[in-house]
Amino acid sequence: MVEKVQPSLGRMPAVNFLRPQIQTLKAYESKAIPGCVRLDANENPLTWPKGMREELFASSFALNRYPDGEAQGLRLALSQYTGVPVEGILAGNGSDELIQLVMTTFGGEKGAVIYHPPTFSMYGAAAQVTGTDTIEVPLLLAEDGRDFCLDVDGILEAAGQPRVHMIILCNPNNPTGTLFPREDILRIVKESQKIVIVDEAYGEFAGESVVDQIPNHPNLLVMKTYSKLFAMAALRLGYLLGQGSTIQLLNRARQPFNVNSFTQKAGVVALNYVEDYRAQGRLLIDELDKIVEALKLLPQVTVFATRANFVLFRPENPEQVYEQLIERGFLIRNMGNLPVVGKALRLSTGLPEENTRLISALEEILG
Ligand SMILES: Cc1ncc(COP(=O)(O)O)c(C=O)c1O
């Protein structure tokens, strides 16, 4: 029997049917200002290593077919690159998808997640979308006021609650740039007995990783992305590394064809250029150092210690500085009022010539 649609329902606004978790959620905003140099998304501004584009475009793609749902070629190449067996690798449509997948798989009504504000905003957003409870254990401000520490004891105490299933640690941390000590991270992995996801989106810039610890800890997942050092933010590619038994669980909830064929191939090709990327990484860090040193010389500016390709800083009047930089052609990130830090701004490094102009603009505005 065909059900009749009630005429009154047709006039009912869709907002009436929202899940309660979505009611207070705001759509993610990413601002694009034409003509502005983009220093707001922590990307790699350099062009791809020489020959890479040509190699990728010379590949053939069966675009009428679904992609390989298991991303076998990509996972094989990643296995050689990371040393993690193929069955311990899961590719995603950017780390953003993987953050949500982890929560869909292990969170929901019965599985809370711990994270450490101020940190990457998508952890909170993904928790809300998936109906996962959150427990926030804020970072501690170091004595010098320019660095942060993980509250390891606080995290372990919170993790003692049975409802906690996951802990997310961001290392180096976005937006503070902090690199947390390896022993702090491993203590949380060992003592919490919960699933610990270490987001190493900026790990290549800091030259540190806990990937080597995966064989020792079935509860450890390491998350990586091609969006930062590998300069592929547009193609959306991230991956999770862990023990095969844990990765298999995530596959149950993954969309079957989550990474498209072109992106899978780009991920393979990029790994033929790792040395070039490393050289790019060194250049970007040298460039960032120049900006950091210039910021430190400016009056009334707190500059936070960073090991990533961006820096967080707190001038006296952040909103004004943000607007004045836009007027001079630079889009940076206004972080608003961050927990622990207060109102602050974040910028990532641009091309050398852009950075020179940026430093002049900062000196003009803040000097
Ligand atoms: C810490 C962190 N994790 C994950 C992501 C998302 O990366 P992707 O582009 O792979 O979704 C970002 C992007 O800014 C990030 O800062």
UniProtKB/TrEMBL annotation:
Q: Which Gene3D superfamilies match?
A: Aspartate Aminotransferase, domain 1 (3.90.1150.10), Type I PLP-dependent aspartate aminotransferase-like (Major domain) (3.40.640.10)
Query: What is an example of a Pfam family matching this protein?
Result: Aminotran_1_2
GO MF, one annotated term? histidinol-phosphate transaminase activity
- EC class of the enzyme, as a word: transferase
Q: Which GO terms describe its biological process?
A: L-histidine biosynthetic process
Q: What are the protein's UniProt keywords?
A: Amino-acid biosynthesis, Aminotransferase, Histidine biosynthesis, Pyridoxal phosphate, Transferase
Sites of N6-(pyridoxal phosphate)lysine modification: K228
Q: Which residues form the Aminotransferase class I/classII large domain?
A: 36-361
What superkingdom heads the lineage?
Bacteria
Cofactors, names only: pyridoxal 5'-phosphate
Q: What is this protein called?
A: Histidinol-phosphate aminotransferase
Per the UniProt record, the source organism is Desulfitobacterium dichloroeliminans (strain LMG P-21439 / DCA1)
Gene name linked to the record: hisC
